[in-house]
Amino acid sequence: MIIRDTTFYKTFFSFFLILVFQNVIRFAVNLTDNIMLGSYQESSLAGATAVNHLQFVLQQAIMGIGSGLVILGTQYWGQNRTRPIRRLSAIAMWFGIAAGILLFTATCLFPRQLLELFTYDKAIIAEGMKYLETIRWSYLFFVISVILMETLRAVEIVRISLYVAIIGLIVNFGINFILIFGRAGFPEMGICGAGIGTLTARIVELAAVLIFLWKKGGVLKLRLISFFHIDRVLLKDFIRVSYPLLIVSTLWGLSTAAQTMILGHLDSTAIAANSAANALYLTLKVSMLGACATASIMIGKAIGQGKLNVVKDYAQTLQLIFIILGLILGATIYLLRGPFLRLYSLSPQTMAMCYEFLLVLSITGIGTSYQMPTNGGIISGGGDTRFIMFLDIISIWGIVLPLSALGAFVWNWSPVAVMIALNSDQVFKCVPAFIKVHSYTWIKKLTRTEA
Quick check: pTM over 0.90? Predict the structure, then answer.
């Protein structure tokens, strides 16, 4: 049944648009680095890209932790219970801080070895080392602000994430412009200036979240003392729900890094082409992250309220919305590839490869737009997080990466053929997603009366 109640669509698209704009702006912080560094020097662009793939692994881990918080939190919010949400936030925060410290330590002890996973080019590694020296200090600021915003999202406060993202973008853009190229009397710092811009943006973002919680976060009554109490019962629930999401998100981050490793070891052109192509693709793909988050909030709250028939109607209607969004996404990537790539100062060979990569992504993006929010929004938002874990392990690590590695290093496929193999799962994962969502076995009540 397709829902005809206009309240559903108003709720979905109000949340969706806010979360999309927030994600677009959040990715634009890295995109700003990419475009400015691409205009400054190609080796600086490639060096920053290699470092950002390390940070992407952290981002994916935090997304898994935050998603577990939202899935559990929205069900309690459906029952108008905020105390369990505060305790879940404390649990998520400590897991997030542990992940941030782990990556920070690794980048301090083994910076060159980590960068060599993506390229052996000495010029790229040298630039990446400069960028990493500054950017790794931003990890903990990023973790804390994201977990706090995910806590607010669990109680349907989403606008703050958009405002914080806008503030971060403005700060990052301004500092990048001044320090990368040496404007307003400041020295020309290149990639080091980009690192300072991103670090400053992360600090300002966290400050903005804390100010919001201090002045307008009364519904949650979050206090610093709240983060020093760990509820053992909720900890078990959080681990049970979150560990599949953490595995999925971390493996996705690692698989993205592995994709860059495979393409980067083909030739030096492929890594720069992949960087530029992914800058556009990821900026548009964030709309699907917004769809995931919105679906998860609406599904989780409805389950918490006990409206199981409404949950089924939600699932049917959301799938149709995802398909329409996918067609729009694919067409947008295809139409914008020319104007976007003209922002870069790339060699003709790199530019031609970018065009081919974006053609592939414009097609596979349609599949992404259906399977990603269906799996990550409806199914996992309903409480069944193990399904997407097994699906991703089998499809990505059992099929896609082995096939792509063989194609690149054994069968000598072209970079474009390897790109097709690397993104093939975005299409074939639509089938198990469709079957699972129509089984309705993913609807699970996760709340406890004693929590």
Answer: no
